[in-house]
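Support request from a user on the community tier.

User writes: "When I paste my structure tokens into the form, the page sometimes reloads and wipes my input. The last time it worked, I copied everything first. Here is what I submitted, just in case something in the input itself triggers the reload:"
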């Protein structure tokens, strides 16, 4: 509801925006670090006491999110590289929930995770939306969009080519918008 100027990632974080990259291993996580360290990563200021990290508090918060998100890990001391893809994604999600972001941009949220974990991620995103979080999903998987989106904005060649409510959306309609750009570069809606 208010305009913001974002020129670098820190501006987005300060504005309450979190980003779950499609490349969770390369960008979203520190693979050699454990679950609690990754969970605290976007909110180090919350765990800073006199210039030192309050490890006990960070572990306690991470344990609460492991329980809430049903992350399968033997402990919060487990290196995230040893978790399944779906559980790694939950750790990335927990990182932004600790930060208490209002807007979550999730890019290809179920890439590289199994079918059961996909359904769990969908339920988590739906729960967050019902709790008032704004969720922006970027996905190339049409069934995924039709499963979780309330509104679908289709882009082609870097421009918005159509917008559909979930009730009006189908794979065919989405593909029509994704491929309809008139000869002169004008959009057909």
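"...and here is what came back when it finally went through:"
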């Amino acid at each position: 509801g208010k305009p913001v100027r974002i020129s670098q990632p820190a501006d987005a974080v300060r504005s309450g925006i979190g980003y779950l990259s499609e490349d969770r291993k390369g960008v979203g996580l520190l693979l050699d670090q454990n679950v609690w360290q990754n969970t605290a990563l976007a909110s180090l200021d919350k765990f800073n006491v006199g210039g030192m990290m309050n490890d006990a508090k960070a572990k306690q918060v991470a344990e609460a999110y492991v329980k809430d998100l049903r992350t399968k890990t033997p402990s919060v001391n487990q290196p995230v590289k040893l978790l399944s893809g779906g559980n790694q994604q939950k750790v990335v999600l927990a990182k932004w929930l600790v930060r208490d972001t209002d807007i979550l941009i999730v890019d290809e949220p179920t890439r590289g995770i199994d079918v059961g974990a996909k359904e769990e991620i969908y339920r988590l995103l739906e729960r967050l939306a019902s709790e008032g979080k704004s969720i922006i999903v970027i996905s190339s998987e049409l069934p995924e969009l039709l499963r979780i989106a309330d509104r679908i904005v289709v882009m082609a060649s870097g421009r918005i080519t159509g917008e559909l409510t979930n009730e009006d959306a189908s794979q065919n309609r989405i593909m029509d918008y994704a491929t309809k750009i008139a000869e002169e570069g004008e959009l057909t809606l």
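Agent notes: The reload is a front-end session timeout and is unrelated to the input. Strands lie at 17-20, 48-49, 52-53, 103-107, 134-138, 151-156, 159-165. The helical segments are 9-14, 24-28, 35-40, 55-69, 85-99, 115-130, 142-148, 171-179. Escalated to web team.
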